[in-house]
Amino acid sequence: MSIVKNKIYGLLKGNFLISKDSLKNWRFILFLVGLMMLMIASAHSSDKKVMEIAELNKKIKELRAEFVDTRSISMKLKLESAIRNKVLDQGLKPSENPPQVIKVVSKK
pLDDT digits over 32-56, tens only? Predict the structure, then answer.
């Protein structure tokens, strides 16, 4: 039982970091630290991209709403009644006679 107890105390005191073959332990620890830093950087990068995508989706919704609003205003302005009201202020009114179709017959 004392062997296990001594090994646990040695681990808690950090004897594995100062012993003769501690170089391989330090290399492994540095490798693990490097992997952890790489994981953290990757997580931050993916979070940043997710936030950018959410912001772009919000902007798309706003632009789509603006497009629909502008299109409805444009369609209202194209109506014949709207055009009549605008040109009526200038003294123009619609013709009472319908337009006549002119047919051109070419002789070959």
Answer: 999 999 999 999 999 999 999 999 9
At 46 the pLDDT is 97
Which pLDDT score is estimated for 67?
97
Q: Which one, of 28, 23, 24, 25, lies nearest residue 11 by Cα?
A: 25
Tokens 């055009």, located at residue: 83
84 in Cβ contact with 94 (< 8 Å): yes
Virtual torsion, Cα 57, 63, 68, 73, nearest 10 deg: 170
Render the burial of 14-27: b for 16+ CB within 10 Å, e for the rest: eeeeeeeeeeeeee
First-to-last C-alpha distance (Å) of the chain: 119
Q: Pinpoint the alpha helices (H) of 1-108.
A: 2-13, 15-18, 22-78, 80-88
CA distance linking residue 88 with residue 19, whole number of Å: 100
Q: List the chain residues with pLDDT less than 70.
A: none
